[in-house]
Amino acid sequence: MHLYALSNESEEYRRARDELLTAEMALRDQREQVAEMRRGLPAGPLVDDYVFREGAADLSQNEAGDYFDTRLSELFEPGKSTLIIEHLMYGPDWDDACPMCAMWLDGYNGIMRHIRNRTSLAIVARADIGKIRGWAAIRGWNNLRLLSSHDNSFTQDFGMEQNGGQMPGISVFTKEADGQVRAYYTHGAVMAKDQYRGLDLYSPVWQLFDLLPEGRGEWLPKLDY
User: Fold this and answer.
1) Distance between alpha carbon 202 and the CA centroid of its chain, in Å?
2) Mapping DSSP to helix (H, G, I), strand (E, B) and coil, where does residue 36 land?
3) What is the pTM of this model?
């Protein structure tokens, strides 16, 4: 069955590989069914036009006078009616952002030219905008749009701040013809009680490590290695 057979593989290996291929195709089909269900969601609720703090695209411009207010509705790039927001775990009193979130954003920074061709994407964290931008400059996130929800309730309203703690997540919004914004989809790493890995599909690191004989194991990302 498998198209990539090895010339010297054993019958046992081939049999096991064919069984795995059947399971891999079933998993692909299940993912596509889930994506279709997501696309079939009814219209979500209208949301407030939250006001965030933002800075210039040049991360070296990081003085108090360089910051300005940006509304949620203004995050949709011209000609685009959809917006993805990544909730970065970075609390107001934290010295560093979450290493796991940083791994995701390292990847997003590299593919932004492709994402912008189809939709808008922004990063929101509860930390002060100056702290976010200073940290982003260290990471080299020159392609990401970074915003602070320090002075609004956005992070709390979307369930990404609970009992004072920060949560990782992703939200999708749509913009109506009249300019109003609707919540379309929000998901987090914690799917339900004792059910995790809700965001794993959005980082290629996990997918690559799952290909290894030893799997991902107990490996966790760090800010530096």
Assistant:
1) 6
2) helix
3) 0.93
